[in-house]
């Protein structure tokens, strides 16, 4: 078990705190949500830019997750009989497959993929959609469209 212990990066801690903030907000635990929000902001400010970030490196990481990481995480969640983690892993794997598909399409079409259209992201599961309007219901986690937000073009 000691081999599993490691120091988390600021990126990982920021994402973790952000997710905990959302979970607390859903449970109407406003004080805890605010505290996790402060922690998320703190870690986001301490992020380090990836020095050799590239399309291929991102695609490699997604392929690694799809090829190995999800299988390991599913095995551990199954052993722990953690139904919530298993459900979240199903969503995450579906979203990762969709992101991989979008990256491959983007590599072929470049900016043409994004011309005259919008990019939408589900705040619950991370589903990404390219189109004029978001779907009425997220195809991954089934939340209504008001949980699916437009990504500003400057961020793309």
Topology (SSEs and partners):
Layout: H1 10-26, H2 30-45, H3 55-79, H4 83-109, E1 118-122, E2 128-131, E3 148-150
Antiparallel strand pairs: 1-2, 1-3
Walk me through what this model shows.
With 156 residues, the chain is mainly alpha-helical. The protein folds into 3 domains: 7-48; 53-109; 114-156, Rubrerythrin, domain 2 (Single Sheet), CATH 2.20.28.10. The protein is 54% helix and 8% strand. The protein is built from 4 helices and 3 strands. It has helices at residues 10-26, 30-45, 55-79, 83-109, and strands at 118-122, 128-131, 148-150. The protein has a 3-stranded antiparallel sheet. A hairpin with a 5-residue loop joins β1 (118-122) and β2 (128-131). 9% of the residues are buried. The model has no long low-confidence stretch (mean pLDDT 87).
* Content of β-strand: 5-15%
The domain tally reads 3
Poorly predicted regions are: none
| Strand order across the largest sheet | 2-1-3
Give me the Rg, rounded: 17 Å
Number of strands: 3
Largest sheet: 3 strands, antiparallel
What is the chain-wise order of helices and strands?
HHHHEEE
InterPro entries: Rubredoxin-like_dom, RUBY_RBDX
Protein name: Rubredoxin-type Fe(Cys)4 protein
GO molecular function, one term: iron ion binding
Pfam families: RUBY_RBDX (PF21349)
């Amino acid at each position: 078990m000691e081999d599993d212990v490691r120091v988390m990066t600021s990126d990982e801690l920021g994402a973790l705190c952000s997710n905990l903030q959302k979970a607390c907000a859903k449970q109407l635990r406003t004080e805890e949500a605010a505290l996790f929000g402060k922690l998320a902001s703190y870690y986001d400010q301490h992020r380090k830019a990836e020095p050799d970030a590239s399309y291929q490196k991102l695609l490699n990481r997604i392929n690694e997750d799809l090829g190995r990481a999800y299988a390991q995480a599913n095995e551990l969640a199954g052993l722990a009989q953690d139904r919530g983690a298993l459900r979240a892993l199903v969503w995450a794997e579906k979203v990762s497959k969709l992101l991989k598909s979008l990256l491959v399409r983007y590599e072929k079409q470049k900016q043409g993929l994004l011309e005259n259209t919008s990019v939408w992201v589900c705040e619950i599961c991370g589903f990404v959609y390219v189109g004029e309007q978001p779907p009425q219901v997220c195809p991954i986690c089934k939340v209504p469209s008001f949980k699916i937000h437009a990504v500003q073009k400057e961020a793309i």
